Amino acid sequence: MPNFGPAEYVLLLLAVIVIALLGVGLAARRAGARPAGRLAWRSPGLLPPVSADLQHRVRDLYAQNKKIEAIKLIREQTGLGLKEAKDLAETLASGRPLPVAPGHARPDLASRVRELKAAGRGEQAVFLVRGETGMGQPEAERFVDAIDVADAEGGEA
After folding, report:
1. How many beta carbons lie within 10 A of that of residue 12, not counting itself?
2. What is the mean pLDDT of each run of 10 residues along the chain (157 residues)?
């Protein structure tokens, strides 16, 4: 019988741990566990970023009465669970604003446009308006110009 010292026992223990981890990983893969293509959004109360393009596509699918496809699209793009994706799809289809967790509210669109204009980034302000509202170029430019006019008059847009 071989004579094992403390170093050999440590190496033997490490080998057993590595083999156990490999076994668990193999069993999980066989059971169907796989890493998601995108990082699943798991912060309670927070929504993942929802692009204007995704919002538009979901609204179009709901308008075509393809609710299941809209929910699947949201799940693929955001990693949300079924209930969260269904709630988000219904919110988008109804035209209600997306819910924001307390303490994570961002300024309204007009405030962000004012900040961009004050920094001399007017084109980016128009781009922001187009991305968040779906407006065309002329409408977005009028929106941005109207905010400037309201500010010059001391009013609120």
Report:
1. 11
2. 82 94 85 55 64 87 93 89 89 74 68 86 87 87 79 48
